[in-house]
Write a structure and sequence with these properties.
Among the domains are: 164 residues, no CATH class; 198 residues, Anaerobic Ribonucleotide-triphosphate Reductase Large Chain (Alpha-Beta Barrel), CATH 3.20.70.20; 102 residues, no CATH class. The protein contains 30 helices and 28 strands. Helix 3 packs across helix 12 and helix 15 packs parallel to helix 21. The longest helix has 29 residues. Belongs to the ribonucleoside diphosphate reductase class-2 family.
Amino acid sequence: MTEVVEGGSTGSSASGAKGAGKSAANAKHSGEARTVKASAKSQPVYPSNGLAVERVYTTEGTHPYDEVDWERRDVVMTNWRDGSINFEQRGVEFPVSWSVNAANIVTTKYFRGAVGTSQREWSLKQLINRVVHTYRTAGEEYGYFRSAQDAEVFEHELTWMLLHQVFSFNSPVWFNVGTTSPQQVSACFILAVDDKMDSILNWYREEGLIFKGGSGAGLNLSRIRSSKELLSSGGTASGPVSFMRGADASAGTIKSGGATRRAAKMVVLDIDHPDIVEFVETKAREEDKIRVLRDAGFDMDLGGADITSVQYQNANNSVRVSDEFMRAVEEGGQFGLRARTTHEVIETVDAKGLFNKVAKAAWECADPGIQYDDTINDWHTNPESGRITASNPCSEYMSLDNTSCNLASLNLMKFLGEGNSFDSEKFVQAVELIITAMDISICFADFPTESIGINTRAYRQLGIGYANLGALLMASGLAYDSDAGRAMAGAITSLMTGTAYRRSAELAGVVGPYDGFARNAEGHARVMRKHAAANDSVRFFHETDKSVLAHATAEWAKCLKIGADNGWRNAQASVLAPTGTIGLMMDCDTTGIEPDLALVKFKKLVGGGSMQIVNQTVPRALKALGYQQEQIEAIVEFIGEHGHVQDAPGLRPEHYDVFDCAMGARAIRAMGHVRMMAATQPFLSGAISKTVNLPESATVEDIADVYYQGWKLGLKALAVYRDNCKVGQPLSAGKGAKQDAVATPEAAPVVEYHPVRRRLPKSRPSQTVSFAVGGAEGYLTAGSYPDDGLGEVFLKLGKQGSTLAGVMDAFSIAISIALQHGVPLETYVSKFTNMRFEPAGLTDDPDIRMAQSIVDYIFRRLALDYLPFDTRSALGIYTAEERSRQLDTGSYAPTSETEDDLEALAQSVPVTERKPQVTAEVKSDVHSSTELLESIIGVSADAPLCMNCGTKMRPAGSCFVCEGCGSTSGCS
């Protein structure tokens, strides 16, 4: 733990050479790092009021590297599409505890030096030393530590936490710190552009420099006058959307030639800009173009040869809405669009109509997202310095124009102890150390432009956050979409930010508050009080979150007290970032604030090959819920086979939601994601990088409601993605068939086939089933052809003449006509099972004990009655008798063997101990957890292919991350 002695003057730099003070243990390992670029030209400065750093994780006299076992590995990365080797480095050194994925990603992404040369890093020790030594040296030079001994403890503690994957800095730190390259440490940038051609051209240049360094940038184009306004020369302005084309082309070019990742950018436009409709519909129109070109045979997938012909694909677009506009939407009123130069209203529109256009465009192509301007600026610590108008590409960093933010994220699972208690004290100590290191980095960091450097040093924005929240909640036996889960998440987030700002106030007493503090002292203190008040309103549910909340309350009290005396060192302290690549580096099961992707994961093996494995969080969660070892083994085995917990043997239905994931049979509903964001947002300086996923069946109204509820719940920003709304996703059989059709010779005759209705005879067999789902009662009547094929369905639900009864009648007629035209029942079963809506829950059917909706129940019942066993089995639908048989014999399939035969067979089988970890060899066409999940659930995950290695990526916040090589689609 670190402590601060009150009083004393701020530290200053003096000229001279680097000081000594390393212990023998430290000196033993310091030579293992590459030659580090000297970051300073000063003697160490140790003020009397400097930080006194206590040991938390390390042992005096023992270097952290000596406490772990190390091994050499070969890292060979191949492109699964053609088997070619795209990276190879043999004999790299990592701790035995690090996974193959983590070692591969660090080796390929973060080791510096040309491959095959002596300058190339080959050990994790070298990488950590390169970064940590730079931080320690700068901390000593700028007067952060009380003594050389404290600086050494700081170095050892930071090394231990990085070595044991307790936290990670953002990627630019690993790319640049301690190298001969510019010391760019920030992942997130916000730029500014004015209504002048010089400023617009400078925007292109500044973005290019930021992309080159492996980071992303965002900006607001609302200062640029609209296409409905005149220029001083008398002509008409072209508007901001026209200038977006040039920036998009620039980003696409740098993305193709960059060495670290594709360009990431955000473009924001205010809702009152006269060109707002053109901006909103821009990407939707381009998506229409993509569909036409795809159907004409062009390769329009993400990374395809022809996708570059389409514009605006390299940026995330967001609309900035005001409370005035949202109230007009609520009330059905009018809203004025204002000229940029005179601010007078030049057009009045229907607010709800405009809002629906935003939702419709997002429904069509996932853009634009939405940002809530008044909420953002109500939590702004620097209101006297200007408004917050934009964000970084992933929408978690929101601050002044021409600023940047460096990020770091904690691995929450590292603080979950025995008995599922959260170690608040160690968490506080870790946050203290990380915030100190992050603030030190601003002292030596380089910035892509002079204005960004000046403003970042003046306001010192930081972005501490976390990963593995989803895994932590599941391991604790808490459902992600539950009040208890949200309370735990809110308490942890409050503790993190309260500690960060308390440490920031302490740093202000050592090295001074940020330069812009005096001007914004009242505004900054007001936001601190708002955070503390939000903390007081959190309701606890268990002893664990009660304890975390008590620690958070104490931290906020100290933050306010120390800040009143010292001010604060940092204008901002916390965000929730995607944690894509660094999440893989830390071996996290879940990224950022996200729930688990799926219960079954893809895992690489040492020496090559791969397997599927049930998340180890699952057995821990089952134990926390009170299940016995035998029950845990049976449930885990079921999950390994089916990929979900629905109907798992011995698992109580009330515990199903603990294992709900982002995808699969029990996907978390959209508002579950929104409510989790709302539970943590009041405790963050910035915002949250997260995309709310909706099913393909979601409507424009559904998306409009998500955007509206985000405003009502106090979020700062929100993005959505509807399944299959974009063409740019992996190839499918349907696409291949289309391409084959294009290649057909023109002379070949075209034969069109039309389905023919096969009507049922006047007299036909039928059966009627009464049912109850979640308390709602109904009747299902199914009529068959004489040769035993289902031909019609009648549903009686609700009172005669009611809306529900009428809708179900229409639904029955539509299904019946389709069945008679040859649509297989199997198709309907695969589409409608697992559809979730109320009423849902327990049924009175012994074969189907739980249903996620009435439609889910109906098609499960029809499958059991009319589909053959093999077909049902592929869909995971079994009778109660078949499930019982599986528990007794290990197989669902009916058998002709007699009981004597079975008894003799059981006696002949040797008994082996069953392990809770279920693994299986992965199919040869599966290369990531996302593809593995798709193979289980049978539907597309809508994730793009990695541009580097071709593996399918998985979601990470509002971006995607590749599990194969660590590449991301954004700025984590």
